[in-house]
Structures are given as C-alpha cells and as structure tokens.
Amino acid sequence: xxxxxxxxxxxxxxxxxxxxxxLMSFHFKKNETLNAVDGVCIEHGAHGASGPLQLSYRxxxxxxxxxFIGAAEKLGxxxxxxxxxxxxxxxxxxxxxxxxxxxxxxxxxxxxxxxNQLEVRPNxxxxxxxxxxxxxxxxxxxxxxxxxxxxxxxxxxxxxxxILCCGAIQSPQLxxxxxxxxxxxxxxxxxxxxxxxxxxxxxxxxxxxxxxxxAPGVGLAMMxxxxxxxADALRVNPTQVFDKGPLPxxxxxxxxxPEELKQLKAHAEVLVAEYMKTxxxxxxxxxxxxSVFHSxxxxxxxxxxxxxxxxxxxxxxxxxETLFHFDCSKYFEDPQKALAATNENIxxxxxxxxxxxxxxxxxxxxxxxxxxxxDCAYLSHPHDMxxxxxxxxxxxxxxxxxxxGNNLYVPQNVTKAHAGATPMSDEVxxxxxxxxxxxxxxxxxxxxxxxxxxxHLKVLGAHNLRVADASVMPNITSGNTQATCYMIGQKxxxxxxxxxxxxxxxxxxxxxxxxxxx
Length: 518
Ligand SMILES: Cc1cc2nc3c(=O)[nH]c(=O)nc-3n(C[C@H](O)[C@H](O)[C@H](O)COP(=O)(O)OP(=O)(O)OC[C@H]3O[C@@H](n4cnc5c(N)ncnc54)[C@H](O)[C@@H]3O)c2cc1C
Hints:
Helix content: 25-40%
Bound molecules: flavin-adenine dinucleotide
Largest sheet: 7 strands, mixed
Strand content: 15-25%
Distance between the termini: 34 Å
Structural class: alpha+beta
Strand order of the largest sheet: 3-4-15-16-17-14-20
Mean pLDDT: 90
Radius of gyration: 24 Å
Low-confidence stretches: 1-18, 509-518
C-alpha cells in the first residue's frame, strides 16, 4: 500500500524541506501510473498516469472489505481517495488500498525502476551480494566507498559524490562506522569522530495492534485462502514461514495421497491457474485491503494520527506465531478453536501513525557487519499510548457497526489480569497495547533533513556526501512509507540534475530513458 502526497505533510515546515507541496506532489506523480477501477473513489488529478510504478486496486473487492468501508462511512469517515487532496478533515476518510500492482501481480522497486536498465544505462553498475562497509573520507570530503563481496574488500572511488540509500537503519550505521555521528557513540566503539552529528537520532516508526473478531459471513476462512495459492503452498515445508501444509513436502509422494487430498490438490491447481491467467482472485491480495485514516486528537485538520486497517482474514496459527511473534497459548483460551482453518475471522489493526516517541540507532562496533543497536523507544512519549487507545476504540466501533463487536478476542492473559474491567477500558487497553503492539516496519527519520542533512540531502558538516532514503524524512509520514521513499529518490535525482546542469528528460524505468554519465 502506498502512503501519499498529503500524508507526508505533517507540518508546513516538512513540506518546505522537500521543496513544497506542489513539488513533492510532482515527484510522487512522476513515479506512478494509477490504474482506475469501477466502484472505487479516485481523485485523478492527485495521481500520475505515466510513471513506471503501476498502482491498482485488488479486483474484485472482497465482501468483508465492502462491509468494512460501509461501516466506516456510517461512522463519519468519508469514502475518499486517501491519497487525494481532500482527506476528510479530522474525521478522516476510508479507502480501499492502492497497491503497487499491475493486472493483479506485485510490482516492486526492482521491476519498476531497475529491470532492463543495466542494458541501456552505461552509468549504472550493480554489485550483487556486496555490502558497503565504510565511506572513504579525506578529512570531511567523501571520496568513495569501501565494500565487501563476502570474501574480499574493494574500493570504489566517486568522481563527484557518494549517495547513501541503505535505509533508515543502515544509512546511519554506515555514517557512524565511517566517523560521522555522535562523538560519544563513536568513541565508545573506537571510531574516530570526523563530524560530530546527531546521526541515528530521532528514529520513528508506526505501530499497530491487532483486534481479531469472529465474523461469520464476512471474514475469509484460511481453508478458502490456502488452496488459492496453489498446491505447493499447501506442502509441508519447514524452510518456509508456514510449515504445516497437508500435502507432502515431496510431490513424488502425491500418488499415495488419500482421495480427499487429491481433490484438494486438483482444486488448488485450478485456482492458481485461474489467477495466473486473469490476475484476479485471492492471490492478487495481501488480504490487507482497506484503511480508515482519522485524527483522534483533532489537532490537525489534515494530518491524521490514527490508521485503522482491515484484514479480510484472521490468518492461521503459523502466521500468529511465526510472522506476528505472538504466543498463541497465552493469547487465546483455545488457539486451535479460535484460529481453526474453517473460522471466518477478520482483523482490524488499530495504528499509531504520528508517533511522538523517538528512538535511536547506535553502532556497537566499528565493523559494518555487526548489527547496530536499534532502540525504538516505542510508547516512551505518553501521547502515543492515548492515540493508540483511541484508535482501538474507534476500530471497535467500526467492528460493532459491522455487526461483530461482541466477537472480539481480547487476549486472555489480559482479561484475566483485569477481571471485571470492560474490554475498552483504559486498564485493559493499556495492558493489551504494552504486550501485543507490533511494528509496521516503517523506520525513518534517522538522518533527518534539518538535523543530519540539508534540504539538498547533503550531510551537514561533510562534503560530497548525500543520503536519499527513509532516514531523511524530517518527520514520519502518516501513511505507509514506501511511496515517500520513491518520491525522495525522484527528488534526489532532480537535485543532482540541477546541481550538475543535467536534464532528466524521460521517466526512469522506461526503456527510452538515457541519463548522462556523471
Ligand atoms: C516487512 C515489511 C513490510 C512493509 N510493508 C509496506 C507496505 O505495505 N507499504 C509501504 O508503503 N511500506 C511498507 N514497508 C516499508 C517500506 O518497505 C520502507 O519504508 C522502504 O522500503 C524504505 O525504503 P529505503 O529506500 O529507505 O530503504 P530500503 O528499501 O530498506 O532499501 C535499502 C537497501 O539498501 C541495502 N543496503 C543496506 N545496507 C547496505 C550496505 N551496507 N551495503 C549495500 N547495500 C545495503 C538493503 O539491502 C536495501 O536493498 C514495509 C517494510 C517491511 C520491512
């Protein structure tokens, strides 16, 4: 799912940092082609129509998604394009998710921006399975990087600049191991400090908490999801996340299958073939289908602090334990019953998307291959707990409007610890949040514009060195972060073109694009 033009505008200041709303909008639009579908609200003027990144909506919309959108509308969340210019004011909006997808198949950054580019761009070289281990510095001037291919260390010298895009964890790590970071952190690891800077500080992330409901007739049972992914997805496969499929690991053993499993296998093969042909069906979905964005504290007319997402299924025990990392025997009275493959469950994920808590990334060694310390400091600011509780209460109102409010699975260890308290009471919600909140994986802000880099993404105090990734966000977006990272990439390209007198005539990712060598 994408964030969007408006969701990044957490304050006027942030907008100005990246060159103003209109310019940011330009770079978002340049990336995308939004393929419209019937029955979904789209503000066409807010979207690109010829960028390399294909966006679309899941087709057909699942029943549960329509029920969720209808319920949210009844509670005052207008059905709007969440990436449009109108996001519904404090009461916010509800939208089906815009996903990076073309004709039902996932589009990733590689296929949108890099595929086939090696052949047509003489100035692009890729070094697979390699890791940048240090920025080469002459004083405060970056002259290149040192990298390892796993067996040997090499040096790459820059003719003009070094641009880091290792993400919000590893860009600050690479800067710190190279001597650019907080002096005390570097000296503790024996790294001489070249530039004393707050690199790695200000880490922000989005949080969410799952609220699962039994939703007969609305949710998707896992026994209906599994076969749509094809026979191989139903195999026992301990090397994959979901390891307990009913079919044997070795397809050669299928001949001995009982009739019931033979039929299941045949059914799965038909379903996956249908998806491969049409791009429609359950595999075209992450089952994460729609969201409400709204403001729980009503402080900002435009930016929303809460996202409530709808998942069409409750998933299975494997997912709860291996993907979400919950102890099911602690969470559920009877995990087998609650997460039975036949159960039609749904999940509403209440989310905190304008956190005030700030964490940090700190190296623990001068060696880039050693993991840094990631201290997210989640919920360290009391405001965040309040927003998350309010987000859960609103999610529960939507679930009640959907007719399933009485079927909420409150974690049993929380219920037991607060006997007599109602599910939406402060004491229950706070305990639930402290034990079961999970990350959206949206780390950002660790080399923030204004603190570590300037508005041209140049590292303050250093020369010939820029950063262009999630780490430069001055504040976290209030929507998912991927689209904003693509936008930052476009903006970085425009800044470089401006600085070196180049022109970007075509859209990156299209075959005709040729960039002048730098
Ligand atoms: C599980 C998960 C699910 C997510 N789902 C969504 C979603 O649905 N929607 C959404 O909008 N966002 C989502 N995100 C967030 C989104 O993926 C990130 O915000 C975005 O990819 C960050 O982009 P980036 O360019 O900053 O860093 P990255 O995408 O992390 O890119 C950094 C790259 O640098 C490479 N790298 C790092 N260190 C080195 C080094 N030393 N040498 C060489 N290469 C290096 C990494 O391998 C990586 O390829 C999700 C993230 C995760 C982890």
